[in-house]
Structures are given as structure tokens and as C-alpha cells.
């Protein structure tokens, strides 16, 4: 999930490999792409350094994009000019378009050559995150769900109890309004509504709704669940005084102690801890429960997909993919981000993460939400990125006070219908 505006300028450093890797005199050289270096860089750097020790014959050049959407657009352009990287870590909701276009290679034969995938730590749930178009389009590298980060000091000042944070949206909005009323430039809350459709789907799925209908022939968010989700966003603005901020500005305000609570991906735990420092007491908790029976949360994150056509490069790319998604790589990824591990061995074997979670309680709320997490929905067809932008643009009209939830829902449904694949 990206926290940056899709309007951000595309940044493509020529080669951001670690110095040690850049000096490697490898017999095979591959290019690896990943998005969101502001979240992922430390984890990839740690994995790259360890991989270089084990595979000195493989040189890795790194290319990054600010977010998943620009990463997807980059690869779609490169596919047309035959300039693809050998391995790309794409958002779960973008794998589908690459699988349907034949860009992502089926990893199943490579896994089968190693034996039972489950014994490697890839159980059915982990594999399902990368299955699209009838193939194993990728292996999950990092998984997330949305959580709430809150400033315990501001909660106390507003008369709340940090040890008993509200568990429903009515309570959350009431508390946010009290924090907002403290004045002195303090804002009550911010919900990540911009960037992509992930956090909107957290509300939609929380009400038990769907993005499209079961046959994927029409929108599913045009019903009561979608309207309730948009009305909740409007309440955040009108009742809790949610400011119209970019994700970057919101994170900066929170770290500075000027924002009471922020709802965003668990992937940002490590970065938020570093940003807050000793400014205030930071706490995390799960998302408010909307429908206790039907309610679900989206699983964000990324999976590595192989695009290399050369046999040697494909083998090298697979080695790096396996290491990054294996138990050791996953332990490094979790400790350097806030994401959930995608390898069962890393989860079950005490030598990897058991002690880490005991010593780092801020990481725990997302783990507790795994039972109600479902895949991040991937829109069909070639317009998936445009569909996402259309949804963000219409939600913006609510936050900016330019449209009612009913108006925004109708416009969003009309535009998304136009962008869906035509069915014969």
C-alpha cells in the first residue's frame, strides 16, 4: 500500500544497489525493482547485504519507484520496450494485470523443483496472496493490515484513557473531536484516504461489502456498504475535524505531537517509532470493528514476481526471491518495517520472530487481525491503476467538502463501470 500521492514525480535512480553489491564481480547480473523505499529500504538493504555474502556470483542492481502504482506503470511501459527488470516486487493488487498479460512468470515449476512448498514455509494462505490468472504469479514478501497509531499523551489531555482506547468508530470520532478541541494547532485524527483504494476497502470490507460483484461484471461498492463507508469518511471530516493533508504531512504532524491518531498500514511501525522518538508515548491498536460477523480487513503488501527471460538471470532472480521470502529474509523484513511475515517457518520457529514480538508490542495489533484479513482486491483488466485513481479522486471531493457521499458514490460507480473490461 502506498502512502504517497500518486501525483508525486516518478523517481528512478539508475542503480541504488549497496556499495558492496556494486563492487561484486558476479558472473550473473540482475536488476531488481521494488516500490516505497521510504518503507522498504532498510529491509531490502539488510537482505541484500546478507545475500551478497552467500551468493557472491550474483550482482544485483536496484531500481525503486515511490509507490506501487508508479511501479506498475513503469513495468507496463518497460514490457512494451522489452526493458523489464528481472525481478519486481509489486503490490498484491497489481499482480493480476501482469499475470493476465503474460509478464509475470509462473513460479510453480521452480517451487516444485525444490519439493513441498509447505516445507519451505509457503503454505496455502501465503501462496494464495500471489496467485492470479491461474498461475503462481509471485511469492509474498510482506503483508500488512491497517491499524491505529495514537498519541497517549494527547488522549490523556483530552480526557481519554490510553489503556482503553475506543473499539468502535463512534467512540473513536468522539475522542478525536475532543483532541481536536485542545487547540494550539492540534488535530484530532487523520485517516489514510488518499494514495490508493486500500484504506477505503478497509472500511468497505469492514461493513462486509465488496469492490465488485461476485462475477466481476459490475461494481459492488455502489450499495449500502459503500455508502456507509463514504459517510464514515465524511464524519471524520465534519465530526472529528480531520484535516485535508497529504500522507507525508500527516505523518510529520503525528510525529511532532500535533495529531492525536493516525490510521495507516502497520508497515510504518518502525518508521513511526523512529520519527516520534521521545516526543510522546506512542501506542498502537487494531482497527475499530464495524460488523463483528461480516467485517474483514484488506491484506496489503507486496510479492516478488519474476520477469527474466534469460535462464541464468531467471535462476539468479529466483535465488534472491527465495531468500527474501524465506525465514531469514522474512525475519529481517519484519524487524526493519512493521509488516507481517509471509513465511510460516518465520512465524512458527522461535529462533526468528517469537522474541521480537514479545519485546515489541507495537507490532502486535496487526498480528491479532490476521484472522479477519482477506486479500487486497485486484481489479481486472488493463485499467486497474486508473480505477484506483478514480476512486481516490472521488473520495477527495468528500474530504474537500465538494460533494456529498451520495454524489461521490454515484460518480465513482459511473466512472469505474466505464473502466471495467467489456464483457461479451
What report would you give on this structure?
There is one protein chain. Helices cover 43% and strands 16% of the residues. The protein has 424 residues and is of the alpha/beta class. A hairpin with a 2-residue loop joins strand 4 (131-132) and strand 5 (135-136). 50% of the residues are buried. Mean pLDDT is 92; it is low at 1-25.
User: Percent helix among the residues?
Assistant: 40-55%
Question: With helices defined by DSSP (H or I, 4 residues minimum), what is the helix count?
Answer: 19
Instruction: Please report which band the strand proportion falls in: under 5%, 5-15%, 15-25%, 25-35%, 35-45% or over 45%.
Output: 15-25%
Radius of gyration computed on alpha carbons: 21 Å
Report the strand count.
12
Summarize the structure.
The protein has 424 residues and is α/β, with parallel strands linked by helices. The protein is built from 19 helices and 12 strands.
Provide key terms for this protein.
12 strands; 6-stranded mixed sheet; disordered N terminus; single chain; alpha/beta; 424 residues; 19 helices; 4-stranded mixed sheet; globular
SSE arrangement:
Blueprint: H1 19-22, E1 28-35, H2 37-54, E2 58-65, H3 68-80, E3 87-91, H4 95-100, H5 108-113, H6 124-128, E4 131-132, E5 135-136, E6 139-144, E7 146-151, H7 152-157, H8 169-180, E8 187-191, H9 198-206, H10 224-238, H11 247-255, E9 259-265, H12 269-276, E10 282-286, E11 297-306, H13 311-325, H14 327-336, H15 344-348, H16 354-359, H17 364-368, E12 373-375, H18 384-399, H19 405-419
Parallel strand pairs: 1-2, 1-3, 8-9, 11-12
Antiparallel strand pairs: 3-11, 4-5, 6-11, 7-9, 7-10
Amino acid at each position: 500500500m502506498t502512502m504517497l500521492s500518486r501525483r508525486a514525480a516518478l523517481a528512478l535512480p539508475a542503480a541504488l544497489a549497496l556499495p558492496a553489491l556494486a563492487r561484486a564481480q558476479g558472473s550473473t547480473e540482475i536488476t531488481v525493482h521494488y516500490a516505497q523505499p521510504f518503507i522498504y529500504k532498510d529491509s531490502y538493504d539488510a537482505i541484500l547485504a546478507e545475500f551478497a555474502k552467500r551468493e557472491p556470483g550474483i550482482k544485483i542492481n536496484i531500481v525503486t519507484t515511490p509507490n506501487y502504482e508508479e511501479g506498475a506503470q513503469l513495468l507496463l511501459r518497460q514490457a512494451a520496450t522489452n526493458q523489464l527488470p528481472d525481478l519486481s516486487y509489486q503490490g498484491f493488487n497489481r499482480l493480476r494485470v501482469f499475470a493476465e498479460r503474460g509478464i509475470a512468470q509462473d513460479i510453480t515449476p521452480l517451487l516444485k523443483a525444490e519439493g513441498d512448498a509447505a516445507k519451505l514455509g509457503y503454505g496455502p494462505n501465503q501462496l494464495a496472496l500471489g496467485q492470479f490468472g491461474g498461475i503462481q504469479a509471485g511469492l509474498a514478501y510482506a503483508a500488512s493490515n491497517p491499524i491505529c497509531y495514537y498519541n497517549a499523551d494527547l488522549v490523556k489531555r483530552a480526557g481519554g484513557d490510553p489503556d482503553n482506547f475506543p473499539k468502535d468508530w463512534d467512540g473513536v470520532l468522539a475522542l478525536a473531536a475532543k483532541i481536536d478541541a485542545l487547540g494550539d494547532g492540534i488535530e484530532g485524527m487523520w485517516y489514510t484516504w488518499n494514495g490508493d483504494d486500500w484504506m477505503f476497502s478497509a472500511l468497505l470490507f469492514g461493513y462486509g461489502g465488496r469492490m465488485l460483484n461476485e462475477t466481476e461484471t459490475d461494481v459492488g461498492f455502489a450499495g449500502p456498504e459503500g455508502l456507509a463507508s463514504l459517510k464514515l469518511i465524511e464524519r471524520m471530516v465534519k465530526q472529528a475535524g480531520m484535516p485535508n493533508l497529504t500522507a507525508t504531512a500527516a505523518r510529520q504532524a503525528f510525529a511532532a505531537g500535533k495529531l492525536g491518531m493516525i490510521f495507516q498500514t502497520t508497515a510504518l511501525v518502525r518508521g513511526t517509532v523512529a520519527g516520534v522518538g521521545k516526543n510522546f508515548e506512542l501506542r498502537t491498536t487494531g482497527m475499530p470493528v464495524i460488523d463483528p460477523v461480516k467485517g474483514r480487513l484488506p491484506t496489503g503488501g507486496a510479492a516478488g514476481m519474476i520477469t527474466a527471460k534469460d535462464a541464468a538471470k531467471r535462476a539468479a532472480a529466483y535465488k534472491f526471491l527465495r531468500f527474501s521470502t524465506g525465514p531469514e529474509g522474512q525475519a529481517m523484513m519484519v524487524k526493519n518495517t512493521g509488516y507481517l511475515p509471509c513465511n510460516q517457518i518465520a512465524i512458527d520457529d522461535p529462533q526468528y520472530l517469537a522474541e521480537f514480538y514479545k519485546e515489541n508490542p507495537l507490532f502486535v495489533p496487526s498480528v491479532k487481525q490476521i484472522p479477519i484479513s482477506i486479500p487486497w482486491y485486484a481489479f481486472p483488466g488493463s485499467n486497474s491503476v486508473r480505477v484506483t485513481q478514480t476512486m481516490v479522486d472521488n473520495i477527495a471531493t468528500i474530504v474537500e467538502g465538494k460533494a456529498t457521499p451520495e454524489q461521490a458514490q454515484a460518480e465513482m460507480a459511473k466512472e469505474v463501470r466505464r473502466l471495467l473490461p467489456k464483457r461479451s
